[in-house]
Amino acid sequence: MRAWYARGMPPIEAQIAALLSPLTTLRHEIHRHPELGFEEHETQRRVMEYLRDLGFDPKPCATTGVIADLNPGRSGRSLALRADMDCLPMQEDTDLPYRSIHDGRAHKCGHDGHTVSLLGAASILAGMRERVDGNVRLIFQPAEEGVNGGGARVMVEEAALEGVDEIYAFHNWPGFPHGSARVCAGPVMASVHDLVIELRGVGGHASQPQVTRDPVVAGAALVTALQSVVSRNISATDAAVLSVCTFHAGEANNVIPARARLTGTLRTFDTSVAANVVDRIRAVCSGIAESYGVEILPEIQALYPVLVNHADCAEAVRQAAEAILGPTAVSPAGLPLAAAEDFGRFTERVPGAYFFLGAGENSDTPGCHHPDFDFDDRLIPTAIRLFVRLVEDRVGLRP
Ligand SMILES: [Zn+2]
Ligand SMILES: [Zn+2]
Predict the structure, then answer these.
(1) E strands within 110-269?
(2) Is the overall model pTM greater than 0.85, yes or no?
């Protein structure tokens, strides 16, 4: 069946219909064997085998990723389509027949579905290979969920975007209604900074605080002071979220500890806003350290940049999605999201757009990262049609 292109081709709709059963089976197999970031060896093997059967020459990239060109070296435009492949470090407690066989690993973001959707598009594109007036690069990315700074950065370093004119990807999203697509120009997902703040004081007996430098009291003051960073420094028209999420200190109820440790996250939709907030966090840490006589060492690491959609590319997605789903099914409502995605590493380098395919039946449909989440297999044909349509519209077909 994968060798249609050798035997003459039925229409695309018939091809997609015939692909659904094997792709769904493959999705369930990948779901059953989830792999964490930069450990996607089995998924990589499956993807490369599938692509080789279609006549591609897939290459490993970023250790466990894959890239493959439809028409390597062909003149014309070159468009990249990207899917992520990693799972989350979570337990799967569902009673799905294809539930994860690995403790502490589960496909709870739907990257199993993204992977097979792109393989489905690869099948259709392989049948159109001669007619595509340029190249299509398929990018299967490892480690989207943040392991070691994410896989996109490594793929870019390993030249995955060399020669690429535009790049596109999608995420399933149960928070948007099934049958809808969401896309917008400009910021579509947030930047992320990780915060780790060490407080070093002088510990001692709880009955003699005057001879200590208490990092717990300083840490409590710091958490409170950080609440003013966004509310008092960021304009009403900008947006930022700064959350302190852990506070660890001490072990005994009669010992003032010498150390405390806070961690948290910063999300913004603008690089200059992020820089401003980071400066203010450092200034507040210095001020509290001075006031409380402790040492405060903030480590603020830029994890993912803002994911910014290029206007032309977002418009291309809107038109393609309207053609497939109908004009009322496509909108920018609900965007941007304060979640983060390292697809922004690609759109920093080349124009591109990231879009969402709605997977929600109702407000109770479990969202991405929820223990009961599962990818909605009904999105596979929609995603394939959209990917292929983007190739037709942005690369073009020879007559
Ligand atoms: Zn996720
Ligand atoms: Zn995801």
Answers:
(1) 134-141, 166-177, 181-182, 186-189, 191-200, 204-205, 240-249, 255-256, 259-268
(2) yes
